[in-house]
Amino acid sequence: MKQATSDVGDLVARRPAGQSLEAPFYVGQEFFDLDIEAVFARSWLFVAAEAELPEPGDYVTVDLGSYSVIVVRDDDGDVRAFHNVCRHRGARILNEERGSVGNIVCGYHRWTYGVDGKLLYAESQAPGFDPSCFGLRSVHARTVAGLVFICLAQEPPEDFDEVAARIAPYLAPHRLAEAKVATQIDLVENGNWKLTMENNRECYHCVGHPELQACYFPIYGYQEQDIPPALRPAYERFLLADAEARKTYDSLSLPYAEIEELDTRPTGFRIQREPLDLAGESYTPDGTAACKRLLADFPTARLGRLSMHIQPNSWFHFMADHAITFSVIPLGPDRTLVRTTWLVHADAVEGIDYDLDTLTKVWKATNDQDAVLVARAHRGISSPAYLPGPYGPTEEQVEAFVNWYVTRLRAHLERRP
User: Fold this and answer.
1) Which has the closest alpha carbon to 86: 136, 125, 120, 133?
2) Could you tell me which residues are beta bridge partners of residue 330?
3) Fold of 45-156
4) Which of 126, 222, 353, 399 is 20 to 30 A (C-alpha) from 15?
5) What CATH number is given for 161-395 in this structure?
């Protein structure tokens, strides 16, 4: 049964802190539509790495609910975004997920646009027709140290400039804008997008990730007093590795201090540089670098991981040898696209500088395992027996995500007539 709008408002208003959301937030179509309207159409979203658009005319398309957006590199090398809607009679223009064009041509009546969005050709128009009035509708687009963000709102969140200025010094040393895509894997999880994001924001379940635990300190979210006996050896190794890593970061002038503002601003984010376990170089079974050609002129590969979260749909890991980006796109109340992209140095050669299976092994396995967990969570929440449960101390960032999300819904509902 469809949830009444008034009931949606009541559910949002009464959400208590510190526990999971009620079932309609995860399984209801009306909440899915509200999530697109209130969250995805009003926030800055990570949609691609610049490396996915290496040349003018290269594009990707992004579908968000009823929206479709073209993200394209123009002839001046800038990244632009446009609604994927022809200004003639509204046809979808580009129907592939990615590609390269000289001009953007609608396949219906051949209206032709430049990669700057200007209408270049429209056959058989009436006298006085002004092409300058019929360019593609723009979408806000920003690049930050090689990462591409868009915002569908007419007035985007004003804090993005500040966020970009604070994260750029962390990202810049990795030279992401100069990297190339080693591979990209799309995985559809059979669960609500919020379950995907909640799952990412905690390591309470990390015992289910043996490949990840081999090279990653599985103490994320734990305070020292909460470390269970089974994780105590890993915690002791972390303390030693962290002390060594801080000396390295200081010597290379690499920012590493934690900044965490996940639910106190419209563009919630977290960023921190920390060590990895074993060889400490990369996300590989033994912790050694997966790519011999480092992303930049680092004097050592032992730089651990620079990790970043940005609400509502992305997380990232940047190492000395490669970077991994994750973007989350809702497909329906019970289906979510997780797109993972591995970036390496532009001159790195597969089979010589890196082996693709080694590069992707840890996170491919982890993503597959997470997909199983998210599907189980969605099936359980869909049961009439489901009741919200409490978040533990190690799930603090899950609570921060949910609080950020509910705050966005409340603000949007208050703006409604």
Assistant:
1) 136
2) 336
3) Rieske Iron-sulfur Protein (2.102.10)
4) 222
5) 3.90.380.10
